[in-house]
Amino acid sequence: MNKLKSLIVDIRTQIVILTILFIAAYYVPFKSMVNIWWGNDDYSYGFLIPVASAYLLWEKRKTLGEIPIRSALGVLPILVFFILISLYGILGSSGNVSMPSIPILFILFTGFCFGIESVKRLILPLGFLFFMVPVPAVIERYIGLYLKAMSSRLGGDFISLFNIPVHVSGNVIDLGVTQLQVVDACSGLRYIFPLFALGILFAYFFERIAWKRLFCVLVTIPLGILLNALRIGVTGILTEMFGPKVSEGFFHDFSGWVLFVVAFIMLFLISRFLAVFSPQAMVSKESNVPQRGHDPTLAVEGKNTTGAFLFSVAILSFVAVLSLSTSTLPAVTIDGGIQGFPMLIGEWKGTPEIVDPVIIRESGAEEAFSGYYINGSGSEMSLYMGYRSTAFLSNENFFHSPTVCIPSSGWVQREVKRRTITNVLYFDNLDVTEMVIEKEGKRQLVYFWFQTKDKATHDKNINRFHLSLHAIRRDNTHDLFIRPIAPVDSAEKIEDAEIRMDGFVREMMPVLLHFLKEKQVRQTGSEF
C-alpha cells in the first residue's frame, strides 16, 4: 500500500500515466492528424513537430528541478470547459474543433496538475505543439482566398520582369497559350505555418536578444508570401519556356522543399544583418531562465499534485472510455445503399442521376443519392442526399455546407436565411437553411438540413451537438445531409417557389422515413 502511495506521489510516474491516458483519451483526433500528415504532403512536417517539441523540452532539463510543482485549481474551470469542447469535436465529428483542442488541453492539464509556473517555464516546447495541428478549414478558406490573389499578383509581376506577356485575373495567371491557376495548395498559407515554426526554432537557437528573436519570427510571414510568389513566378517562366508539364509533377513538389531551404538561408542572412545594430551577447540558452540557487521551496513535492493528478486520471479515463466505446458502435448501413431511394414521391416522378465518387468523398458523405423529379404540372425538383453510416468520430471529414460549395461553382447567393416548414411528419416543425442563388439570370431556390434518426436541424454545428448527445447516450444513428433544389422562373415570385418546395419536403419526409425503416441494417446484418 505504501509502495502504491509513493508511486502516485512520484512526479515522474504521474507524468507517464497522464501522458498515456491523454493519448488514449484523444486517440481519435491524434489518429486523424497522423492520417493527414501521412496523406497530405502539405502537412507532412507534422511528424517533426512533436520531435522538435521534445528536444526543446530536453534543452530545459537542467532547470526542470527548479520549478515549483503545485497544482493550480484555478485552471480547473477552463480545463473542464475545453474538455467539453473537445468531446463536442470528437463525438460530433468536428476535426476543426477536436484537433486544435489537443495542444490546448495538454497545456491546461500541465498547468492544473503541476502549476502555472510549470507552464511559464515550458511554454515554448508546449506551445510549439500547436504547429502539428493542420490549418482549420475556416482559416484556410477565408485567409487562403486573399493569399491566393496576392500570390498570383506578385507572381505575375515577377513574370513580367522577364518581358513575358502576362495577365492576372483573380487566382488565374494567363500566359496567352497557357493558363496557370493558383489553387488552395499554392496559396502560401500552408507554407506560412511551418515557416513560422522554423522562425521560432531559428530565433531560439541562433538569437539571444528579445527584439531580434521577435523580428526573426515575424519576418517569416512576409517571407513566406514573397517566396511562394517567387515559386509561382518561376513556375510560370518555366511553363512559358518548356510547356505546361513543368507546372506539375516533380518540379512542382520539389520547389516546395526548395522554398524552405531558401527561407532558412534568408533567415540566416537576416540574422547576420541584425548583428550590425547591436553587439551579439554571448549568453547560453539556459540564460532565458533565471538561475536560482538551491531553494527548499522549489523542491518537487508530489503531495501537492496528488489530488489534481487523481482527478485528471478520472476525467481522462472517462473521455477515453467514451470515445473508444463510441468507436465500437456498428455502422448503420442501408441494404442496397442510399442510391435505392424511391423515384416516386407522391405525384413527383423521378429519374436517378449518377454522382461522381470524388464529389461524394469531398462532400463528406460515404454514399449519396441524386434524383431529378417532375410532377404533373411540369414543376421540377432536384434532390441530393449524402449518407454516413458511421456518424461518430469521423474527425477528418464532415458534410460540407452549400453556402461554401455552391458559390465556388459560379452561383451568387442572393439570400440566405433560416426557414421553418410546418406540418412535417415526425418532426412537425422542420428548420432548414434557405438559399436563393442566381447565375446568368437564372434563379434557384435551395433548402438544406442535417438529420439523424430522430433529430433534424438547419445548422451543421447543432447537428454535431446532436451527434454528441447520441454518442453519450450510446444511441446509435446514421447522419444525413438533405438538399432539394427548385428552379425559379423569371416571372415567378420566391414566395410561390417556397410553397412548392415546402410541399415537396412534406411529401418526401414520410417516404424517406419509411425507406430508412425498411432498408437500414447494422453492420452485422441484423435489423436496425
What would you say this structure looks like, in words?
The structure is a single chain. The protein has helices at 2-9, 11-25, 27-39, 48-59, 61-64, 76-91, 95-114, 116-121, 123-127, 137-160, 189-206, 210-218, 220-242, 249-274, 306-326, 357-363, 402-408, 460-472, 494-519; strands spanning 167-169, 172-174, 179-181, 332-334, 344-345, 348-352, 367-374, 380-388, 412-424, 428-439, 442-451, 456-457, 479-488, 520-522. The protein has 528 residues and is α+β, with helices and mostly antiparallel strands. The chain folds into 3 domains: 2-134 and 301-326, no CATH class; 137-274, no CATH class; 332-522. Strand 9 and strand 10 form a beta hairpin. Helix 6 packs across helix 18, helix 11 crosses helix 13 (220-242) and helix 13 (220-242) packs antiparallel against helix 14 (249-274). Mean pLDDT is 84; it is low at 280-302 and 524-528.
Chart the SSEs and their pairings.
Blueprint: H1 2-9, H2 11-25, H3 27-39, H4 48-59, H5 61-64, H6 76-91, H7 95-114, H8 116-121, H9 123-127, H10 137-160, E1 167-169, E2 172-174, E3 179-181, H11 189-206, H12 210-218, H13 220-242, H14 249-274, H15 306-326, E4 332-334, E5 344-345, E6 348-352, H16 357-363, E7 367-374, E8 380-388, H17 402-408, E9 412-424, E10 428-439, E11 442-451, E12 456-457, H18 460-472, E13 479-488, H19 494-519, E14 520-522
Antiparallel strand pairs: 1-2, 2-3, 4-14, 5-6, 6-7, 7-8, 8-13, 9-10, 10-11, 11-12, 11-13
Helix pairs in contact: 2-15, 3-7, 6-7, 6-18, 7-15, 10-13, 11-12, 11-13, 11-14, 13-14
